[in-house]
Write a structure and sequence with these properties.
Layout: H1 3-11, E1 18-22, H2 26-40, H3 47-50, E2 51-55, H4 61-68, E3 78-83, H5 93-101, E4 107-113, H6 128-132, E5 138-140, H7 146-158, E6 163-164, H8 166-176, H9 180-193, E7 200-201, H10 203-210, H11 212-226, H12 230-241, H13 246-268, H14 273-280, H15 284-294, H16 299-317, H17 322-335
Parallel strand pairs: 1-4, 1-5, 2-3, 3-4, 6-7
Length: 337
């Protein structure tokens, strides 16, 4: 089942006995939970008696199943929510399989995993949950990028009464990155920049809130890395981290490397500068410089840089010290190639 179909069904109160949503987009997980909660509890007071919430880092499958077997008190269905479902231990396979054979028709179990559970660069084998649950109960949150992410931001903001222009959405994605929660938060702040009653977000509002200084500093950092100026790069990084979250800086660096890798691949396939400019939605003059920089590096070098960024992301998510991890990454990128 895709995400949009799940939401449509949830809005009508049509929920499977158990559903697993997985993907690295906490905002989409929160939105799905909000839709389910509104459908099941039109009166929020009903949730006090008929909603159970677990963190899989501290709960076992048996506790989740026991909650799901409990009959609702006032609502039509009992809602059982499990955050960070990827942490559920595989020893619960048998318990969950038995429950799936005879689920409680008066309960809906929502498993929310804030990382992809299929095979990926971080996971060699699919998570055990994917082998137990039927495909119709699994919703994979596919990453949105580029125009798709911009359109999602505009539609999601519209649901809150905010009108975000195409140009404003494009700037937000360029300046803030691909974190949907961060994008939505910046759109809300941009609306307030136009006044407490303002509901329109344009380029002026985005610039006032996000500011061009972020773009300038990121550009300085990427230029220093491109020129292998490790001292300047580390100084620029330190200045950035004084006001910006390490995840934002890492996302910007990863996006820069990924774009260079794609540009080189497109050129090798015979794409012209104008064609690449249209795909990236950037001016041909800027793309010409990007093509020139990308083609001075081999595909192996760019792939290696991308792997370094992914590893840094994994270390940050595993609790690594942000400044030290980012400094090590920048030094590695400066030395690569």
């Amino acid at each position: 089942m895709d995400y949009a179909a799940f939401l449509r069904n949830a809005e009508r109160g049509q929920l499977p006995p158990i559903a697993l949503l997985h993907g690295a987009d906490p905002q989409l997980l929160d939105d799905a939970l909000a839709v389910v909660a509104r459908a099941l509890f039109p009166d929020p007071s009903l949730a006090v008696f008929d909603r159970d919430a677990f963190d899989a880092r501290e709960a076992e499958v048996e506790a989740v199943v026991n909650a799901a077997l409990t009959l609702p008190v006032q609502a039509a269905l009992r809602l059982v929510v499990v955050r960070r479902a990827q942490a559920l231990a595989p020893k619960g396979t048998e318990t969950l399989t038995r429950y799936l054979a005879r689920p409680n028709p008066a309960a809906a179990v929502l498993l929310l995993a804030d990382e992809p559970l299929g095979v990926s660069r971080d996971r060699r084998n699919p998570h055990w949950l994917l082998g137990v649950l039927p495909a119709t109960a699994v919703v994979e949150l596919l990453p949105r990028r580029g125009r798709a992410l911009e359109e999602w931001l505009r539609q999601r903001a519209l649901a809150e009464g905010l009108s975000v222009s195409e140009e404003a959405a494009r700037l937000l994605v360029q300046w803030v990155g691909e974190d949907s929660a961060a994008l939505l938060g910046e759109a809300r702040k941009a609306a307030l920049a136009g006044g407490s009653d303002n509901r329109a977000v344009g380029v002026t509002e985005v610039t006032a809130v996000v500011g061009e200084h972020r773009v300038s500093a990121i550009f300085e950092l990427t230029r220093a890395i491109e020129r292998h100026e490790v001292g300047l790069a580390l100084k620029t990084l330190e200045r950035l981290l004084a006001t910006e979250d390490a995840v934002f800086v890492l996302a910007a660096l990863t996006r820069d490397v990924r774009t260079a890798w794609m540009v080189r691949a497109w050129r090798e396939r015979g794409q012209t500068v104008d064609q690449i400019a249209r795909m990236l939605r950037r001016p041909p003059g800027a793309v010409e410089a990007l093509v020139a920089a990308a083609t001075t590096q081999t595909a192996d070098v760019l792939a290696g840089k991308l792997v370094r960024c992914w590893r840094a992301e994994q270390r940050l998510k595993s609790g690594g010290e942000a400044r030290a991890e980012m400094a090590a990454l920048v030094a590695e990128l400066c030395g690569a190639g």
